[in-house]
Fold each of these.
Amino acid sequence: MSSSNREAGLFSRPGIELLGGARDQLPILLGVIPFGVIFGALAVSAGIPAFEAQSFSLFIFAGSAQFIAVSLIAEAASPFLIVLTILVVNLRHMLYSASLAPHVYHLANRWKIPLSWLLTDEAFIIASSRYRRGNIEFAHWYYLGTGLMLWAAWQLSTFLGIALGVLIPPGIGLDFALPLTFMAVILPTLTDRPAWAAACSAGFFSILLTNLPFKLDLLIPAILGIGVGLGVEMHSVRVKRANGDGA
Amino acid sequence: MNHSELWIIILGGMAVTFLIRLSFILLIPPDRLPEWFRSGLRFVPPAVLAALIAPDLLLLDGTLHLTFANHRLVAGLIAMLVAWRTRNTWFTIGSGLLTFGLLGLL
């Protein structure tokens, strides 16, 4: 990086991106923080000591996998089975890793490693919408900001849940903020017919396959949707070729 | 569950999760991937988002509810309209939560 980019102030380009990423994570936190609090409270009530409960959030940092692990611990499942379950639950992150890889390909490992560490559903969704907007020279700072914001909120909300040990009243509807945020984020991704086909079919399969365990009800519908998107795209390329538009 | 078993879960869970997240970013360079795989990547965000949204709006306790009695569906449709018109995340969430809250009062 050239010396002119080294200025680390908050109003340099990297600083603006970092703050922008943190800011755009805020609406998602509305839905995430209650989950963190509930996780902390559940972990303690499952008999996990406070330090270990916090360590789940510190080291694994994957909400749904943590919830499932705690419920398996409460049922006294074997540690091997629980780690295997965490692996299956988090397999969907491989899709996110592949999707972001071309954008961070040029970065040094000292960037790739922490950015991978921060790669959750929520960070992926916000970071990939940033990459779609272009002008991405400093977009890795944005990704870092959005990931750190989520990480900090997850740690603090877990801590709160452990400390209070009480469930915040369910049914106040804040968890509904998550799909609402996703709606605002999905629209710009629906740029053409193949993208619409991918989204509609993924939504359809997520309803059809809703009872699959291990969060596979997200991974498998997503893969099927991606396949449908690819199919529609290849079909339209073929139609264009047949009409003599070239490829 | 004893202490060392708990730490096996925490550290093992950390290892598998981190390796999955590192997979394509660090371990497998994207230029070694086949063309169809790379062109499929742009469909990851819309597909994942739709698979996250649809069950939250359409299912109540695991069964399909396509009626006005499903407050999440009604609030979600209004929020979708707001998202489309304004392209603003806060307006989208605000309109959805407000509709959901008002429907709950009826």
Amino acid sequence: MDEARFEAFYRAHASSLWSYIYRLTGDPATADDLLQKTFFRFLRANPQAANEDHLRRYLFRTATNLAFDHFRETKRERGREIVVVDTGAHDSADLRHDMMRVFAELKPRERALLWLAHVEESNHEDIAEALGLKAKSIKVLLFRARRRLGELLKKKGLAS
Amino acid sequence: MSADVCRREPDVRKGNWSDDLRAHAQSCPDCAAAAAISPWMTSFAAMPDREHILPDPSVVWLKAQLLRDIATADRATRPMTSLQTSAYLVVAACWAAVLTWKWEVIVIWLHRLSPGQFVLGASTDAAASSMSMTFLMALVVLASLTIMLALHTILAEE
């Protein structure tokens, strides 16, 4: 991949990838760091595929692996222990912080599943590839993740 | 629960509600679960979370090239590093062997070098005779090898 193609690819996908990593980790600095590492790995692998979707899937899979490695390294993998960093001015930041805290109560894999399914609108095969799981298991795991988030939202009075 | 994905789930996620879809969501557990969280997920995804700018792609590109060059250099120098480590181990083993072989002679020889012995002018013939030419040569060769190895390491690093 040459520099021009990389720049175009980066501009098209870096923002959504950053949002994904940020929602997984809850920390903008970590998201910045993991975003760069993801693209370093991407360039080191020098993927030759012409299909943009394939490259995008590769990117999300790498980011997911790096995020999960990060959880293991920082020993936060026990589920709900991500530290949500408050980053901005208040009012809208308060709401954001509250939402991040609710999301942080889910397990890392549940966060990844929900984000990929609902925001990235990935199909089950793509989600399975990103998370290193079997496509057949995604339906059940996604159902459980949705139910858990639904219960959390009800408990906090954020859903009917 | 079957492994098939409900084909109406995307409409539920996007909130494209119709009476028909509402009726379906009440009977489909997947769609009901998706419907319960979709509005919240949509708001969560729409949160403006990027006050600071993403790293510039040219910077990421340059850093990636730099990391690649470092990795290439590491790969290229790996055999040399292994060779150097082996050489250090061999030299250390030789020193250990020589010192073990002639330890008694070395102790006597070192004792002769003490100031007291100099004052007394004592000579230890036994020690002198034990310092064979072979041993002296071995010491000289080992010392030279050690110095060369050290110089090589320093120069290679520079």
